[in-house]
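cache lookup: miss for this entity combination. No prior model stored, computing from scratch. Input as submitted by user K.M.:
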Amino acid sequence: MSTDLKEALFAYTLRLGDSSLVLGHRLSEWCGHAPELEEDIALTNVALDLVGHARMLLTYAGELEGKGRDEDRLAYRRDVFDYRNHLLVEQPNRDFGHTIVRQFLHDAWAVELYGRLCASRDETLAGIAAKAVKEVRYHVRHSGDWLVRLGDGTEVSHAKVADALGRLWPYTGEMFERDEAEQALVAAGIVPDPAELKAAWTARVEAVLEEATLDRPADGWMQKGGRRGEHSEHLGYLLAEMQFLPRAYPDANW
Amino acid sequence: MDRKDWPLFEIFIRPKNGLSHKHVGSLHAADARMALDNARDVYTRRGEGVSIWAVPASSIAASDPSEKASLFDPADDKIYRHPTFYDIPADVKNI
C-alpha cells in the first residue's frame, strides 16, 4: 500500500473508531438510568459492542500509523481537537427518545457501511467489518423498533422523537462527507462510495420514519467539523470523564 | 408508557440443538418481539443459547401448590414405573 493510501486509511479507521468509542460511551451513561431494567441491559449491551468495534478499529489505526500508538494510547491520550468522530454521536443524551433517534440515525449508517466494508480490498478492515456487521444488524433492529414504537405511540412520545429528529438531522450530513483522501480509498476498492452509502441510508431511514409516522426533515444546512477535530462543547466533558483514570494514573495496571 | 401496561413474559432458552428449551426466568416487554429482544439481551449475553421462546405469563396454566399431595405423592411408592429393571446397552448414552 502506498504511503498516501496508508495515511488515508489511518484517517478513515480513526474516524470510524472514534465514532464508535464516543457513541459507546454516551450509551454507557444510560447504565442504571434507562426507563426499564431490560432496556438498561439492552443499551449497555449495544454500548459494549460499540466499544468492542472501537478497540478493533483503533488498534488497526495505530498499526497503520506505525508510531507505536496502541488502542489505549489513541483512546485515552488524545484531546478534543485530535478526535475525529462525527458530531452526531457526541450529542448529549437528553431523554430516551432523543437517544433512540441518535442511535437509529447512526445504526442505519453503520449497517450499510459495515455491510459494504466486508467486501473491502483491505483484508483487516474487511475482517473487522464482518465481525461488526452482525452486531450492528441487531442494533439497527433495536433502535428502529423503538423509533416506530415511540413515533407511532402516544402524543407525548411522538412529540419527543419528532423534536429529537429535528435537532439531530443537521448532524447527519457529516456521515457522507468526502475528501480527496477518502476518494482515493474509494478508487482503490478499500471503502464504499459515500454517495452510494447515502442513497442506501436514506432509503432505510425513510422506510422506518414512515412506519413511525414521522416526517423526514428537509436537508437544510448541515453541521460539520468532526473530521477536522472541530467539535461541540459536549465532547470535552465526555472525554474528561472517560479519560480521567488513565490520565490520573498513567500506565496503571489492575 | 406505564409499567403496568407491560405484560410479563416467561423466557425459555435452548442451549444447543438436540436439547429442549429450558425455563430461565421472566421479564417485562410491551409485545412478543420486544420480549424476544429483551430475552436476547438479558439471558443470552454469554452464549447461553441458540433459540428463544417467549411465552406470555398469563398463558401459562399452573398446578395449585395446595394440591401437591394428591397430585404427586401417589407416584412415590410405585417404583415399578421406573425403568430400573432393564439392562441398558453401554452404547446408549441419553436415557
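stored under new cache key. The CA atoms of residues 9 and 57 of chain B lie 5 Å apart.
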